[in-house]
Amino acid sequence: MRTLQDWVYEVEAGSIRVWLVRSALFLFITGLTTWIGLREFNGLRTMEAMDLAQQARQLATGKGFTTQFIRPLALWQLRAKHGNQSPSLSEFPETLTPPLYPSILSGLFRMGRALRVISFDIPPEKVKFFRVYSPDYVPLALNLTAIVLSAFLVFLWGARQFDFGVGVLAVVFLLGSSALWDLAIQGGSSAFLVLLYAAAGWLFCGLLQIQDSGGENFSPAQEHLRAFCCGWVIALAPLVQLIQIWPCLVFLFVSSFCLRSQKWSLWLGALIPLGISLAWMGRMWQVTGNPLGLNWAFFLADSPNYPGNLVWRTFSYDVEKTDVWRRLTGSVLRGFSMIMAKGPMLCGATLAGLLAVVSLMHPFRLKSATHGKSIWGFVAFALILACSFVIRGEDQAGLSILIVLLPVSCVYGAAFLWVCIERLKFQIELLGMLLACFAGILACWSTIARLALPEPPPFSYPPNYPPIFVFMRSWFETGELQSSDLPWAESWYSNVPTLWIPST
């Protein structure tokens, strides 16, 4: 039986202290995340967020994987494939977005409706008085939960791969990413993708350490289960964002050279989500005649013949006008140059990203850290190269894709900063800690500054004014559709099939 002195030791220096610190960190992050999210949220703000939400509503209401946001190019593609047998606009199939994120949102919508905390229908007498459409809070809650879990996993990753200080500083870098907060509050799937990469990084770090230790203190079943879960998690990313298939395959291929028997479990876990991705691409082939569905249009968006978003709004797409191969080659060179010019800021954290890039040239003492750094470097290069095909000149171009590199940038950036501090050999240890605190404050400055700013206006801009859209529902009969320059907002709030205003 333990004595009082044993319990005091556990609290001061033992396992209880570790869990108390973790619990306090978790509660602090949860409180901070909730406060920032609720303070700044004024409804979904982006095309992607509203498009995903209306797809999820279609699933939640039993209408299948269909959409009410109709692009003219999607009409052209289906009619080119099926002619007069094309699906009706009331049952128009979704051919752009992979199915995982809308499916998760639809499950949450069903739960919210069952608990009567959200409703897709607003009574006429309440139309003038509400600010935020209640289902908008579901994507927000999912994204904020993803940030909290990502921070916890990044801490576990950094603390396990290096030490406690690296874990804490990595969390500071993560929470200091203003870009991550922006993407989470706007809506969309970026925060969920960050969570998947953080989970894959933590699981894979454990695999490398198990291999370094020769499997001591771990049974073969535990090793294979961890490898299976790692492969399963990383292979979920293409089911959220199709372009993630390339870094996923690079990760699986390169990591196979570092793992021994666990590589088969890694691939086995990945085969399940990859099989679902293959089935989804087969569905796209059946529906549209193209395994990418409508995603091929990203290659030609903002091209000389289809400037801006014109390619999405055309009924008369002509492949002979595009000079596809020349366009792709020029797109890669232009996109890669833009990514290099913007640098580490596209991963969501400029300081952490810069430190992580420099750490690629540093040989860590731990073999597992060196192998992990090399593998994630290959993954980052594959994602940057894939992103080069679709990135354009906008200020935030590529951010929603490359933000997935934030967890690995935070971990290895924090580790390299501590290495640099140790090499300075301060005679007073406190000076090194103060330098790390200064770097943390510098990395968090944009997030700290936003907390001092006044709260955002009651409605997001462009004029996504939910009461107007909800009121407009009464204008339409069953089976009618509308055309709009904000079709994503119209389809989500008005719940009416909406055609993006065509180019002609």
The fraction of residues in strands falls at under 5%
Uncertain regions: pLDDT < 50 for 5+ in a row? Answer: none
Overall mean confidence score, pLDDT: 86
Largest sheet: 3 strands, parallel
Net shape: globular
Write down how many β-strands occur, each being a DSSP E stretch of 2 or more residues: 3
Strands in their spatial order, largest beta sheet: 1-3-2
Radius of gyration: 24 Å
Q: What structural class do you assign from the helix and strand content? A: mainly alpha
Spatial gap, N to C terminus: 82 Å
> Helical stretch count?
20
Helix content bin = 55-70%
**What is the N-to-C succession of helices and strands?**
HHHEHHHHHHHHHHHHHHHHEHE
Layout of secondary structure:
Elements: H1 4-12, H2 15-40, H3 47-60, E1 69-70, H4 72-82, H5 100-114, H6 137-161, H7 164-175, H8 178-186, H9 190-212, H10 220-234, H11 245-255, H12 262-288, H13 324-342, H14 350-359, H15 367-388, H16 399-402, H17 406-424, H18 429-452, H19 466-472, E2 482-484, H20 487-494, E3 498-500
Parallel strand pairs: 1-3, 2-3
Helix pairs in contact: 2-6, 3-5, 3-20, 6-7, 6-8, 6-9, 6-17, 7-17, 7-18, 9-10, 9-15, 10-12, 11-15, 13-15, 14-17, 19-20
